[in-house]
Amino acid sequence: MFVTRASRRDHEEIIEFYRENDWDENFDLAEGVTFIARQGPILGTARLLEIAPQTLIVEDVVVHRDYRGTGIGTQLMRAAMNSRGGTLYLSTHDDTIPFYERLEFSAREFDELPESVQVHFRATGDYPSEPGHIHHFLTAR
Q1: What is the mean pLDDT of residues 117-125?
Q2: Which residue of 55, 82, 130, 141 is surrounded by the most CB atoms within 10 Å?
């Protein structure tokens, strides 16, 4: 398996990967930088969006359901994190917090986030959280 930055030629395959793995997010692959893990077909993705200088949002970290827990997500995140400088922010759910904590992310209150990050998470619907669908905000570096 190898991890690489996706090119325009990978976009249709990435969209199909998302569909196959029930990832029903609104996304624009032309926005940001997408990393893919592949072993023939795509096994996972991670995307970084630079919303302000040195301010990056981690989006669309998805590993194929049959390969979760095998280290693919960690490899994707390390490649993405090593590709760019700046502070990383993300929104996640309870079940994935331990994964991100292993990558040295730590929790932040929404009000502690920079304004550009708050604007992003409001625009994506991550804040305020819907009842029963709580988002947690984390940062690294």
Answers
A1: 95
A2: 55
